[in-house]
Amino acid sequence: MSSRLLVVENVSRTFVSAADAVPAVRDASLVAHAGEFVCVFGASGSGKSTLVNLITGLDTADAGRILVGQAELGLLGESRRARLRLDTIGVVFQDHNLIEEFTALENVALPLEATRNSRAQCREGRRRALEQLDRVGLADVAHRLPRHLSGGQRQRVGIARALVGDRRVLVADEPTGALDSRGSRELFELIRSLCDDGVLAVVCSHDPMCREIADTVYEMVDGRLHAAAGVPA
Ligand SMILES: Nc1ncnc2c1ncn2[C@@H]1O[C@H](COP(=O)(O)OP(=O)(O)OP(=O)(O)O)[C@@H](O)[C@H]1O
């Protein structure tokens, strides 16, 4: 397999309040490569969203280390972690989080416009956004508002937005939670084809279809990550 893009090494995260301490992620480790489809399979409350937040630098670990490419997240300040999300790692959630007043194209172009100001740069951003929409099979609905798209199409727009700007790592938290089984299969197959194209996808899901289609499967149980039986980690 090709280059190592993500390393999670003995990572833990406990939420402490006055009343109690919840160990949401406990001593979790995984290694993943460009072109790999990794499924983190687990029940509700097992710690998947916490892991997603740690991998994407939206939250910080109490122990252990996480490397995305060459960057060690624990050594980066908030603004450099935000930069990493713009350059390398994109996130998709169950709720697509699109801006309802913006077209599909405008939504996808948004991450690029955060760092590009001139008109020429904006035009270039739109061109690259259209390229990403084409990659997820939605070039023909680029000018539609999210409310005129199906649930599956909205998730595809979310994936295009997560990858625009040549980001190579896609992290998804229950991306098919709001889709029927056909829509779920189509979305997982899209993610599969993006991986075949070199993207690393880490998909947290409790959908058994995700396990079937992934290259590597981890199970998350009470915050602990286990390589699923019979699957090389
Ligand atoms: N900010 C927080 N403060 C306190 N406890 C939290 C916080 N976030 C998560 N938890 C707790 O950590 C544990 C893991 O939650 P997490 O959301 O990561 O699980 P999950 O597998 O993503 O579940 P779901 O699919 O239902 O979102 C749960 O017991 C949850 O209540």
TrEMBL record:
Pfam families: ABC_tran. Residues 6-233 form the ABC transporter domain. Signal peptide: none annotated. SMART domains: AAA (SM00382). InterPro entries: AAA+_ATPase (IPR003593), ABC_transporter-like_ATP-bd (IPR003439), ABC_transporter-like_CS (IPR017871), ABC_transpr_LolD-like (IPR015854), MacB-like_ATP-bd (IPR017911), P-loop_NTPase (IPR027417). PROSITE patterns: ABC_TRANSPORTER_1, ABC_TRANSPORTER_2. One of its GO terms (cellular component) is plasma membrane. Keywords: ATP-binding, Nucleotide-binding, Transport. One of its GO terms (molecular function) is transmembrane transporter activity. It comes from the Bacteria. Gene3D superfamilies: P-loop containing nucleotide triphosphate hydrolases. Coiled coil: none annotated. SUPFAM superfamilies: P-loop containing nucleoside triphosphate hydrolases. This is ABC transporter ATP-binding protein. It comes from Lentzea tibetensis.
